[in-house]
Amino acid sequence: MSKISRFFKGGGSAASKGRGGPSPQEALARLRETEEMLSKKQEYLETRIERELAIARQHGTKNRRAALQALKRKKRYEKQLSQIDGTLSTIEFQREALENSHTNTEVLKNMGYAAQAMKKVHENMDLNKIDDLMQDITEQQDVAQEISDAISNRATFGDEFDEDELMAELEELEQEELNKGMRDVRLPSVPSTSLPSHPGKLPACHFTFLIIKPCSSTRRRAEDEDEMKKLAAWAS
């Protein structure tokens, strides 16, 4: 029995008959077998057409009757070849449609499996619990941010004092330093000799002593004041 006979007379397996029809895989396999068979038939017809042409050329006008018979056979073979071309196009279209349908069926089946799996996963999930969990997460993030802000702020460690009291104490210290500086100043001794009647004729040594001492004390006081100002600026 030929392949096409088995295809149209039902050469399917008992399992497919028991299910009431072939599976998509079985139908696709049958279609591919039919395509293969028709392709071989095409090759056979093309060979016969070439042979009949050769016969027609061989006889030509010498044996017109034989040449005409060969051309008639060639025409029949060409007609069969054209019919096979149309059949192959139809089978190819049907096979592609079946393949697409099978693909869509598998896709839908897998999507159904995925939907069932998602449903099973979501069975143990409570939306209210999820909302509570998200609120807890938000609160803990806020607490963590507050802790980070508290740690990053500069710690004062009791550095908050009354600035007026500090300034008063600083002024007292400054006054003590000035008093101490005044105590360290040594006044010149009274000369034993009588002073000249004209001030411009004072001894050079006495004149120099009287001028330098006050200048040194004034410069020291100015330096002390600068130090006090720097100390006040640092304390504030």
Automatic annotation (TrEMBL):
Q: Which Pfam families match?
A: Snf7
- State the InterPro entries in the record: Snf7_fam (IPR005024)
Residue ranges, compositional bias (Gly residues): 9-21
> Which residue intervals make up region (Disordered)?
1-25
Give the record's GO CC terms. cytoplasmic side of plasma membrane; cytosol; ESCRT III complex; late endosome membrane; multivesicular body
Bilayer topology reads: Peripheral membrane protein
Record's keyword annotation contains Transmembrane helix? no
Instruction: Specify the protein name.
Output: CHM4C protein
Q: What is the lineage of its organism?
A: Eukaryota, Metazoa, Chordata, Craniata, Vertebrata
